[in-house]
Amino acid sequence: MDISIIILTKNAGEGFTTLLQRISSQKFDGNYEIVVLDSGSTDSTLEIAHSFPTKITRIEPREFHHGRTRNLGAELASGRILVYITQDALPLYDSWLQKLTEDLDDPRVAMVVGRQIPWPDTKPPEKFFYSYYFPEHKIEVVSGASGYYRDNMFISNVNSAIKRDVWQQFKFSEKVILAEDKEFARRVLLAGWKIVYRPDAVVYHAHDFSLRSIFRRSMDSGIALAQGVNVPRSRNWVISRLWYFVKEAGYIVANRGWWKWLPYSVAYEASKLLGVTIGWVKGRTQ
User: Fold this and answer.
1) Contact 175/196 with Cβ under 8 angstroms?
2) How far is 227 from 224, CA to CA, in rounded Å?
3) Is the pTM of this model over 0.90?
4) Distance of CA 61 to CAs 51, 113, 172, 182, 209, Å?
5) Which helix (H) or strand (E) holds 221?
6) What CA–CA distances, in Å, run from 240 to 1, 132, 150, 222, 276?
7) For residue 59, which phi and psi values (nearest 5 degrees)?
8) Which of 1, 36, 140, 200 falls between 20 and 30 A from 59, CA-CA?
9) Contact 54/20 with Cβ under 8 angstroms?
10) C-alpha angle with apex 147: 281 to 131, nearest 5 degrees?
11) Where are the domains of the chain?
12) Which value, in Å, is the radius of gyration of the alpha carbons in the chain?
């Protein structure tokens, strides 16, 4: 088997049909399988999965963990390349799989990540996030870049491809609470591998978190960063976040009719900053 496409699911909803249709219609020079790993769906997710040629495994909800469950998906898969896509993402084109995996022919490349663009109805603060961190040009990431986490936010298992032999050597951490993709990438880069960002391997994906939800997720991110991902120390990081917000405010003001989102944007970014900071401190003291 050339490629295994691994999807972790739980109550994926009716949109899961569209995702599997889009994956099944890919124009790809090789063969691939779809591996579905479900952690307790109570909606139509499993019924939808059974209507496509998929390999389905079920686990208990309490067994889910971002790193451990992705490792399990890889163990259940048979492809020499492991492709990860989340249940709430959707490839734009039938060339997605080809573009996401072709750079892995380079013996120096361990991982390829694709671009994410927001859904049309996504809130402006999240739209800016994706425009800022997911550029339209190709990038090759190597070890030694300063501000690794800040500069390479596009490294994500929402839309990624990894050589199986690289995964077998490094595997995803089963200790970090979140950001298993970035922690994995950091170790891979430090070992001398390259990671490629392909903007033409693009998917729709975005989260419209509430302020409470983004605070909680940011706190988990802060804990994860303290557990295994190097980031710039406090002063530089805070300055970068302030600069990010200045650019976000300019982005919102420049779009007619979006100015009313500015107060929400302030609250949204403050929730993220506070959550990451608290999580970082908590993670450092654990």
Assistant:
1) no
2) 5
3) yes
4) 23, 27, 19, 24, 22
5) helix 211-228
6) 44, 13, 8, 16, 14
7) -130, 165
8) 1
9) yes
10) 100
11) 3-204, 211-285
12) 19
User: Is-contact 220 178, C-beta < 8 A?
Assistant: yes
C-alpha–C-alpha distance, residues 257 and 252, integer Å? 9
Q: Under the phi-then-psi rule, with left for phi > 0, alpha for psi from -120 to 50, and beta for the rest, what region is 179?
A: left
Q: Is 108 within 8 Å of 194 (Cβ atoms)? A: yes
Give residue-wise pLDDT tens across range 29-66. Answer: 899 999 999 999 999 999 999 999 999 999 999 999 99
Q: Which tens digits make up the pLDDT trace of 248-262?
A: 999 999 987 888 899
Sign of CA dihedral 59, 61, 66, 68: negative
In angstroms, the CA 173 to CA 163 distance is 17
* Cβ neighbours of 43 (radius 10 Å): 14
CATH T-level assignment (fold) for domain 3-204: Spore Coat Polysaccharide Biosynthesis Protein SpsA; Chain A (3.90.550)
Instruction: Tell me how far apart the alpha carbons of residues 66 and 192 are, in angstroms, rounded to a whole number.
Output: 25
Q: What is the spatial distance between Cα 160 and Cα 243, in angstroms, rounded to a whole number?
A: 28
